[in-house]
Amino acid sequence: MQKPDQDVSGGADSATRAPKPKPVEIVIAADGGVDWTLQQLELDGIPFRMERDDNTFLIILTSFGPILLVILLLWFFVFRSMRNAGGGPGGMLGNFGKSKHRVQTKDTVNVTFADVAGVQEAKEEVQELVTFLKDPKRFQRLGGRIPRGVLLEGLPGCGKTLLAKAIAGEADVPFFTISGSDFVEMFVGVGASRVRDLFKQAKENSPCIIFLDEIDAVGRRRGGGFTTGGHDEREQTLNAILVEMDGFDATDQVIVIAATNRADVLDPALTRPGRFDRTVSVPLPDLEGRAQILAVHARKVKTGPDVDLARLGRGTPMFSGADLAAMINEAAIIATMADKDFVEMSDLEEARDKVRWGRARRSHKVEEEDRVATAYHEAGHAIVQCLLPDADPLHKVTIIPRGAAGGATFSLPEKDRHGYGRKYIEATLRVLCGGRIAEEKKTSDTSSGASMDIKMATQYARAMVLEWGMSDRVGFVNHAGSDQREMMLPEKDYSEQTARIIDEEIRKIVDAAYDDCTRLI
């Protein structure tokens, strides 16, 4: 932009006046590189012109040069790290396809069947796997074929992993272990690649055992739930497992053991003959099994002469092997903190209560009114339990808060129950009602402390009507249905009239127990 020259003539005097020197014209870049005050230039009469730099290459270089430099530096460092980490072709990206398994060699697997207790039938069923790994020709002599895949099914903490390690320890072979979730990554195809790498290394180190923990993470039934078809990463991983298990030769001494607590959701292709064709149940230990497990773990600590493991086994129903191991360890810690020379029975009972209910909150301040109400509540449970011959024997009553409970009444079953008789259930319902009734009679008030008792009583009564056929009006019919979580279907499959009858029968059972317990107290 050019500012024009102005005529400064002022009449006759202008002819005799010397002309002013013409200012030099300046050029200003339009990119704002120099901070000029254009208004001031106009006031001073300085002509100026603004021009735009047409050097396109320079503009691009100054605009995108720093970004390109950063990209080049990143590419250089990433390429170098890939080359160093990969150790060959494929680099770091190739390592994504490497299996994340952990290997325990023959020298480090120090678990044997002597360390596994409480699951005698499971040990007997897998004993032939040990024989096959030690002497495969013994099975080839008569043309027999040992199962190449064994599925261990049971609740968490029952000893599935320990049993698999014991098989490897008894057979004196390497132990490859990996979790089902370790196969799946954000990149498609990584899981299948890791499966192939795992089986390749296992065959190179045969005889050996592959242990797939939590196989349901990748082995769920295909085509159900919210999967989108064959391109799902978990389905590709499952397909790779199936292909590898079909690829075993008769001379391959590789046993694949998988563990799950949800065998019902596994794909049928996994459990067909030739793959995981043998399912070994690892249940919760019974009374004798709990005593055996306690004896195994008690060998590792110093115990006093008053310790009765059989009594502890009676007082730990529904405890898994992991719970029992944690109980022994907690007892050792309690005795250590008390500076004792050995673990006493009182330490073990305190540890049992801690594992079951949580740590005792002895410093928790409880108002006297609440303490009295809790004492009467627990006394009501204890009295009814002593009066009813069909109830479990009373063991201990406490009003020391543990976890969310303000108090507790412990029973000591004389035997494990694999089923519930009607007399036992009715006695249990009355014991559950005893706390609320005693509290109401002595304090003339009710509290929320009976919420868990009410919940359990309702669950028992509902099971009696819906599942166990213990209602005359409903009859020998099951209305509980199946597990609807997978299919997202409605829970009820019966009419509204039947639903009313069910509700009436549940109410009738609970009310009868409450009235009978009121008469007892």
Task: Provide the descriptors you would attach to this structure in a database record.
alpha/beta, 521 residues, 5 domains, 6-stranded mixed sheet, Rossmann fold, disordered N terminus, two-stranded parallel sheet, single chain
Describe this structure in words.
With 521 residues, this protein is α/β, with parallel strands linked by helices. The protein has five domains: 13-51, no CATH class; 56-95, no CATH class; 102-281, P-loop containing nucleotide triphosphate hydrolases (Rossmann fold), CATH 3.40.50; 287-357, Orthogonal Bundle (Helicase, Ruva Protein, domain 3), CATH 1.10.8; 372-520, Peptidase M41 (Methane Monooxygenase Hydroxylase, Chain G, domain 1), CATH 1.20.58. It has helices at residues 13-16, 38-43, 56-86, 91-95, 120-134, 137-140, 160-171, 190-204, 233-246, 287-298, 309-314, 321-337, 345-357, 368-387, 422-443, 451-466, 496-520, and strands at 26-29, 48-51, 102-104, 149-153, 175-179, 208-213, 254-260, 278-281, 394-398, 408-411. It has a six-stranded mixed β-sheet, sandwiched between helices. It has a two-stranded parallel ribbon with strand order 1-2. A two-stranded antiparallel ribbon has the order 9-10. Helix 5 packs parallel to helix 7 (160-171) and helix 8 runs parallel beside helix 9. The longest helix is centred in the N-terminal third of the chain and has 31 residues, at 56-86. The protein is extended and about 110 Å long. 31% of the residues are buried.
